[in-house]
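Quick entry, no commentary yet.
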Amino acid sequence: MGQSPVVGGQVEVILLKEDREKIRYTADVLADDGTHLVVRAPWAGTQARDFGFVRFEQGDVFTEHFWRDRWYAVKEVRDASGARKGWYCDVTRPAVRDGGVLRVEDLDLDLWVPADGGAPLRLDEDEFLASGLTERDPFAAARAWQALADLEELAADRFAVLG
C-alpha cells in the first residue's frame, strides 16, 4: 500500500462519511496528472442496490473522476454490456492521495444524471441539511452547494469535458 498509484497500477479508494469508513475498494488507475485522478472499478457492493431511478448490480463498471482541487467526484456507470447507465456524482472534499490510498470524504449531496437525457436528480439534500455541516463548517457547506451547482452545469452536456 505504500506505492503511489501509477497508470496501469491500482489504488485503494476509501470513501469516508463523517470520518467513518463508508466503503473501501481497489480500482485500476487509468490516468493521474497530479490533480485529476481517473480510476475504474467494478460495482463494489456485495449485492444489487435499487435506488428507484437506477439499479447498481454485479457487472456494472464505474469510471471515476476524482480531483485534488475540486469538491466533487464524477462516476460514469456502465452495465456489464458496456451500455452507459448515467453518472453518479458525489459532493466531496477534495480527494487526498497517500501513497496507494485515495481518501475521499463524502459530504452527502449527490447528483444522478441519467444517460437517456433525462433531467439530473439532486439527492440527499435532507441528509446534508441534517448533518450539521452548515453550523460546524460554514465554509465547507458553501463549497458543497457550489460544487452541486458546478456539477449541474457539467451535466448539461453530459460531462463531455471528461471525454
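second:
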Amino acid sequence: MRAPSTHLANLDLNLLVSLRELLRERNVTRAAARIGVSQPAASAALSRLRRHFDDELLTRHAGGYVLTPLAVQLADQVEGVCAAAERLFGTGHHFDPRASRRGFSLLIADYTVAVLGTALSAALARRAPGVELRLRLVRESFSADIGETIRLIDGMIAPPAARFDRPDLRSVDLFTDRWVLLLDAANPAAHQELTPARLAVMPWVVPFAPERGFSAAAPITRQFTRLGVEPDTRVRVESYLAVPHLVAGTDRVALVQERLARDVAAGLGLVVRECPGGDGEDGAGTICERFWWHADLDNDPAHRWLRSLLVELSAEL
C-alpha cells in the first residue's frame, strides 16, 4: 500500500510545472520565461521528462515543435493535476483576491463565455489581477465521468442534468435563458407558421449531435423532445457560437439560446422565432444555467469568493 507514496516521494514535482508549460508553449524558450528559469534549465527539464516518459513529447516540425500523441494525452491530465495541487496548497483560512496568484479552472460552453465571459474577465482584472483564469470548453464527451472531471477543476457552468445528481456535487443558480428558433431572413419558412410537423421536415443545424442517434446528455435534447421533433440534422458542430453562422444564407433552422440569438441575428441577417407552444406554465424551454463544483471545495475561501463573484455577475446580466 505504500508503494504509490514512495514512488511519488521519489519524483521531482517541479517537473509538473515544467511539463505543463512545455506542452502549453511548445517552445523551450517561452516555457522557461513562463516558469521563471533559464533556457538551459528548461531544456534540462525537458530531457528529464523525455527519459521519464520514454517519449520525445515535443518533436520538430516545419520550423517549430508539435506534440507527440503521448504529449497530447498528457496535456489535459497535467492541467488538472496542477490545478488540483494549486488548490491544495492555496487552501487556508483567508483569501486576499488582490494579492493571490491562484489559478481558477472552469469547464464552460462557448455560449456561456459569450454571455458571462466579458464580465468575469473584467471583474478578475479589477479585483484579482494576479489570478489566472483557465477556461476549458465543453465537449459532449466530458459527461462520461463527471465526478472525476469536476474533481480536477474548480467547477463548471451547465444546466441541470440527471448525470449531475450526485452527493459529491454542489451547485448554485446563475442565470436563465430559453430556446428560440433561428432562421435566415430570406428563408420563406422564417415568415410562416412553424408547427412541429413543419419543423420535423426542415433541415437542421444541431450542436453537439452525435453521428448516430441523439444523445440525452446534450442540453438541447429536452427541447427537441418537448417539440416532438427528431431533427433532420444536416450540420453537426461542437459549438453553440458557430450555429448562427451555419444557418445564415441557408434554408436550415436551429434551436439557439435567446441571449445568443438576439445578439447575432441582425448582423447575420437572421430571424428569431418563438418555439411552438411558447414556454408554457411548466417553464418548458427554459434553460437554467448553474455553477457546479465538487463538495471538497465547500470550505475553500478562494472558491467561496469565486462562487459569490459568479452569482453577483450573473445577477447583473
